[in-house]
Design goal:
two-stranded antiparallel sheet; mainly alpha; 70% helix
């Protein structure tokens, strides 16, 4: 028997696994080019002229052709506002999580202190507990804290503390920091301290050594943790659902709201764009990892 010959059953199982994983995504992308105005039935692909539209009583052809629903998406102010909120939350929470998580990883890896074991174990709590439990806990925390501060400081009207963009950002930071910390810690496991010692022997102080030696060597792990935090923030629904307020609707929350109404292929177009963004982020991460090796 040829040892390099692959079993047809393994090939079949592999194909079935890929179909199981990616068939829903393929259907979603295909439906973003659906000629129907509803998302229930597929009535064929949009022609090169696009579906017929009515403008001021006159029947005209869509100028966007097959990308009609993508053009409609760009004209939707609610979608653009939700996309802006999502990216704002993701960028701020990712940057903060990377800074806090990197410093936490360095402290846990290099220093001994009384609560080190507890701190290490506590990192896994936000990861392993159900998101809905964490979301309810954060909501109760904000509600009690804001109620106490509003009554203590006599805040009224617009000055009252309430759920909004800030609470969503803080919530995303709280579940992103453990992921960044653990990824950077994994990078620190193979870190050679002799490079830092050599830099200090050549006259560099601790700050210069960190910026010129330590940080560049940790950069692949920091970028990996940052991309992971960014992706989790973009896709988060449960915790955002409990902590968002007026003016802080994100894309997952907006899509959930559309489920109560007639869903058009515009939702599929939105999901297709989002999948493309995540795919580009993953490809960027793989490129960084390949350069490292």
């Amino acid at each position: 028997m040829n040892p390099h010959r692959r079993s047809p059953f393994i090939l079949l199982a592999t194909i079935l696994v890929y179909i199981f994983l990616y068939a829903p995504i393929v259907v979603l992308v295909v439906y973003s080019f659906n000629a129907s105005r509803t998302n229930v039935l597929f009535e064929g692909f949009i022609t090169k002229f696009g579906p017929v539209e009515t403008v001021d009583g006159n029947i005209v052809q869509s100028p966007c052709g097959p990308f009609h629903w993508f053009c409609d998406l760009m004209k939707n102010k609610e979608v653009m506002s939700a996309a802006g909120n999502t990216l704002t939350i993701a960028f701020i929470s990712t940057i903060t999580s990377v800074i806090v998580g990197t410093l936490a990883a360095l402290a846990l890896q290099r220093y001994d202190f009384r609560l080190k074991s507890f701190s290490q174990v506590a990192l896994y709590i936000p990861i392993v507990i159900p998101e809905i439990v964490m979301g309810i806990g954060i909501l109760v925390l904000f509600s009690q804290l804001f109620s106490f501060l509003n009554s203590s400081l006599n805040l009224t009207g617009d000055s009252r503390l309430a759920l909004g963009l800030g609470t969503v950002i803080v919530s995303h930071i709280s579940f992103s920091v453990p992921f960044v910390t653990l990824v950077v810690q994994a990078r620190l496991q193979g870190f050679d301290k002799s490079f830092e010692e050599a830099a200090m022997d050549l006259g560099a102080n601790e700050l210069v050594t960190f910026w010129r030696v330590t940080l560049p060597m940790l950069l692949p792990g920091i970028v990996s943790g940052g991309l992971l935090a960014f992706t989790l923030s973009l896709d988060d629904f449960v915790i955002t659902f409990f902590t968002n307020g007026p003016g802080s609707t994100t894309l997952p929350i907006y899509v959930y709201g559309l489920l109560r109404r007639i869903i058009t292929p515009q939702v599929n177009a939105l999901s297709t764009v989002w999948i493309l963004i995540i795919l580009l982020a993953v490809l960027f991460l793989q490129r960084l990892q390949s350069r490292e090796t």
